Model the fold of this input.
Amino acid sequence: MRPRTLLVAMMALWVSAAMSVACSPLETTSPVTGTTIEEAGTAAPGPAGLPEYAYRSAQAVRGYQVAIAEKELLSVLPCYCGCGQDAENYENLADCFFVPDGDFNSHAANCQICLEQAEDAARWKLEGLTTKEIRDRTDREYEGRGKPTDTPPIA
Ligand SMILES: [Zn+2]
Done:
């Protein structure tokens, strides 16, 4: 392929990626093995207990680690990535990391917003915020990023 043709192909790819929704995968091939990453659902845990797609970036590793440690907290936070719009299975931020049977969900590995939200929640908890304060702050800071999941408010 001539360099120019390659450039055009790459531009087309970039444009289509930029036009898609927030959580579209940026990359569908695993940097580790070169095999295609599953869109959603189950994957065998890797050596450190995370599924292979969680190792696509340092941020993803951190996000999945938070999700394991703070699953309960994430389950009372809405996800602002827009995932609530296209799948009934998404009711809160924890659903972006876990499917209903408890297995990992690959969704968050491809989603900047899910990963950012998880890290923020963990950081705010370390800073001493209560669960309700974390919820309020999440709503304040992520409002407008995408349509939130329909997550019941904290009393
Ligand atoms: Zn999400």
Remarks:
- The two ends are 60 Å apart (CA to CA).
- Residues 23, 79, 81, 83, 96, 111, 114 surround zinc ion (CB under 6 Å).
- DSSP finds six helices and no strands in the chain.
- The chain has a mean pLDDT of 81.
